[in-house]
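Predict fold of Cytochrome c-type protein; 188 aa.
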Amino acid sequence: MSNSDKPGRGQRLWRWLKRPLALGIPIGIFVLVAMGASFQGVMVLSNQNAFCFSCHLSIDTIVQEYQASSHHGDGTKIAATCADCHVPHTFVDKMKVKIMATKDIYHMLAGTITKENFEEHRPAMAQSVWDTFKANDSQSCRHCHQGANFDLAAQPQRARLNHERIAERGETCVDCHQGLTHKRIVIQ
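Predicted 3D structure, encoded as tokens:
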């Protein structure tokens, strides 16, 4: 074969690129796995109380209120984490909340919400959380408070009767249980 019959560099490169199984698929799989593992790692990390506390300890009393509540646990009961209440359990809803939460990071970095002005912003932020709980029928509460964790027969009579009639009154958990984990805010 003479030099004029040999394929040029461009042709050799093109033939090599047309063989996706040689290198492309393994690299693609590696990239997808690495991206998935990184994504999952960020989701797990950002659902930890330590992640939430890293900002809240410096600007408000939310953490101390939570730690004084029954949801924090007493060592004999399983504690509810911040994410158990504030991050939905379904993937799409979880992603919506995570995307919306980036505004909180912005406000923290921009200094619009500070330790000095947190309490004046708190009613609007609390109302937003309560509106979400009402809109999804307190999905986060119901995720844990079901079955043996919500035995109507074991409740005092008044609580049992109120819980039995909650749907017919058009109410949800947060209508009666505001202030259970964080201090009760009066919206004017």
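Residues 20-46 form the longest helix (27 residues).
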